[in-house]
Amino acid sequence: MVKMSSRIAGVALGLGLGWFISGPAAASVTVLGANFAHQCYLAAKFGEKYADDPVDICTRSIENESLQRHDLAGTFVNRGVLYMQQGAFKAAEKDFRQAQTLMPNLGEASVNLGGALIGERRYKEGVDEITRGLTLNPEEPEKAFYNRALGFEGLDDMKSAYFDYLHAQQIKPDWAPPKAELSRFTVKPKE
What residues are paired with 171 via a beta bridge? Predict the structure, then answer.
């Protein structure tokens, strides 16, 4: 049996380099091409700072640069990640859905869409979307399992949450958020 020692109050947002415990983790998409698209990627992945707002940089790329389908879908994902950092889950959801339209098999679009839905407290939809995204082999599956665990907690499915946090930690043992979440659980053998 899995019991949680304390319950989190809600879903806090944590992305990029400034992770917050119990917040959705976002996975960016590598874009090496055009100038603004690459800056958008660096802002989403590493928290790079620019004189201009990173969301505006992404928007300029989407509207003005001639991008291949993968890079355009990736730029929508990366802008969605930046929206999630701002807590703008509806805008992020829209970008992730646009990325899915462009590239239905882009795992990061589905995984991040699930994270945005969880941020909106639409837990069942978020869990389902992340589960779909995991079948598409995202580059950072530990973030998908972590986010799905948040969704399971929102659904009061503590056993599934525990095992997803555990799986995230096993994939990336040096990543602190799953370890911190696991510390809230007590596992007892069945009696």
Answer: none
